[in-house]
Recover the amino acids of this structure.
């Protein structure tokens, strides 16, 4: 089947091997594209990688929580929570400043 999605409907995307799982609310749609390919296509629509295996829609970020001295988590409006990878933190900070 073919599911048509607007970028604004997507909460996040996670890597599943050479596939990706697109999360829209409680629904997960597996697509035959790598996370890198989707990241490239969706960057201009406000998506950013926050760890090696997760891309999030900036509009869906509800909060960024400090978990420890240098550890942070990104919490989406859906309630999903992901650890923010250290190497991706500066990119996220830069994107949030632009909003």
């Amino acid at each position: 089947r073919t599911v048509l999605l607007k970028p604004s409907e997507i909460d996040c995307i996670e890597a599943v091997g050479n596939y990706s799982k697109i999360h829209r609310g409680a629904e997960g749609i597996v697509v035959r594209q790598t996370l890198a390919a989707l990241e490239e296509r969706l960057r201009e629509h406000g998506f950013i990688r926050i760890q090696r295996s997760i891309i999030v829609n900036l509009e869906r970020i509800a909060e960024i929580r400090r978990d420890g001295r240098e550890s942070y988590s990104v919490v989406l409006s859906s309630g999903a929570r992901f650890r923010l990878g250290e190497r991706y933190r500066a990119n996220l900070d830069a994107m949030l400043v632009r909003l």
Summary: The mean pLDDT is 93. The beta strands are 12-16, 19-24, 27-31, 47-51, 54-57, 61-66, 72-76, 81-84. The longest strand covers residues 19-24. The radius of gyration is 13 Å.
